[in-house]
Amino acid sequence: DVCSSDPYQGPSPSGEGLTLKIIRTRGGVFRQREGIVKTSFVSIAGLLLLTATAPAQPQRTFEVASIKTAPPYTMEMVHSGKMKLGMKVDGARAEFGATALTELIARAYRVRTFQVSGPGWMNDERYDIVAKLPEGSTPDQIPEMLQSLLAERFQLRIHRDTKEFGVYALVVAKNGMKLTRRPTDYDPNGKNIGRPMTLDAYADMVSRAVDLPVVDMTGLQGEYLISLGPIMQEMGRQMRVREASTATMGPAAGADSTRGAFDIVEELGLKLESRKLPLVHVLIDHVEKTATEN
């Protein structure tokens, strides 16, 4: 799932030039040694000096934000419309409905929830947040604003490392993908074969219907029209299986049956492959359960 690949030249311990390929993926950055080449007078001290003297970027923050504890999450409340989930941005207004702290941290640091490790209650405690974006800002800058909000209001402190995760890689099947790219004249109110969605976002949905996180490794950018009914039904089925398993203190009927999601993905010309990947790992050093006053 390579986003970009840039060459980098720098000094090796022997004084020769070491060429590295910096590979950026959705989950982290990996460096691949390519070879030794001759260079002239580039020193590690010089590189460090350039880094140290680079001007610091101003910290992005919301202009104002309200944080309230949300009621416990239930499917009944969601279906009845009494509870709104997820992020919504409308102009300068950003809303996070009934969002778990783990999800907020994952969004803030541009990772997935399985890459965040912290107290178990972070998955259960949910919050309703309404924030105002400062003038001239864009939705792409919201993660950095969330970082500031979490640090100020929840006293969040984290550190990052790299960890190998067991995942399912979402890849294109042998016979090719069967999805249609979102047309430029797409009409959300018209008759459509599916909803526009990136494959990265779809992989996140599939994760909730299988036993391992799903990572988009198709290498395909942009939005595609995807029928979400089948995978949402499978997500609901898996949730009921897990709830029954918790109630009976043991595996429920169908608890190991995740073939439904595999079959749904294959209908789209995609495939889930079991892999191990080194990804960014966000570890929580400190966080408060109650946010400071609005």
Give structural notes:
The structure is a single chain. By secondary structure, this protein is α+β, with helices and mostly antiparallel strands. Helix content is 24%, strand content 35%. It has seven helices and 14 strands. It has a four-stranded antiparallel beta sheet with strand order 4-8-6-5. A hairpin with a 5-residue loop joins strand 1 and strand 2. Helix 3 crosses helix 4. The radius of gyration is 22 Å and the shape is globular. The N terminus is likely disordered.
The topology string of helices and strands comes to EEEHEHEEHEEHEEEHEEHHE
What is the share of helical residues?
10-25%
Largest β sheet strand count, sense and barrel closure: 4 strands, antiparallel
Tell the overall outline.
globular
Strand order of the largest sheet: 4-8-6-5
Give the CA-CA distance, first to last residue: 40 Å
Mean pLDDT: 79
Specify the number of helices. Answer: 7
Number of strands: 14
Q: Please mark out the parts with pLDDT under 50 across 5 or more consecutive residues, or reply none.
A: 1-54, 251-256
Write down the Rg.
22 Å
The chain-level structural class is alpha+beta
Beta content comes to 35-45%
What's the assembly state of these chains?
A: single chain
